[in-house]
Design brief:
The protein is an all-alpha fold. 78% of the residues lie in helices and 0% in strands.
């Protein structure tokens, strides 16, 4: 019987690989949603947007500005799908709200 367990600490998660652990649902849902998606993901988006505005102010090519602005989108999509995959194993209103929150966060991060 193959039962996957959640890692006990950060070292166990790190040894499995950042992306693999999140994709396989080995990271606790609260950490994945609040820290990885909301805090870190939003910080990356803000830095990317500010950098793009600075490049725009320096009158650099629009293609470069747009590339910098939208660079985090693949990471945002990955995090959103990781939350979805993790909430598939959980039940209850909390999991549903986190799925909805991740979806809304992805839409906002791409539009803004």
């Amino acid at each position: 019987m193959n039962v996957s367990k959640l890692p006990e600490d950060e070292n166990d998660t790190a040894s499995r690989g950042f992306f693999r652990a999140r994709w396989q649902g080995l990271v606790p849902l609260d950490r994945l949603f609040w820290r990885d998606l909301v805090l870190v993901g939003t910080a990356i988006n803000v830095v990317s947007s500010v950098t793009a505005l600075i490049l725009l102010g320096l009158k650099l090519p629009l293609a470069l500005v747009l590339a910098v602005h939208f660079a985090p989108v693949p990471y945002n999509i990955f995090l959103t799908f990781a939350v979805w995959r993790t909430t598939e194993r959980a039940t209850g209103a909390k999991a549903s709200l986190m799925t909805l929150g991740a979806t809304l966060w992805l839409i906002l991060s791409v539009v803004v």
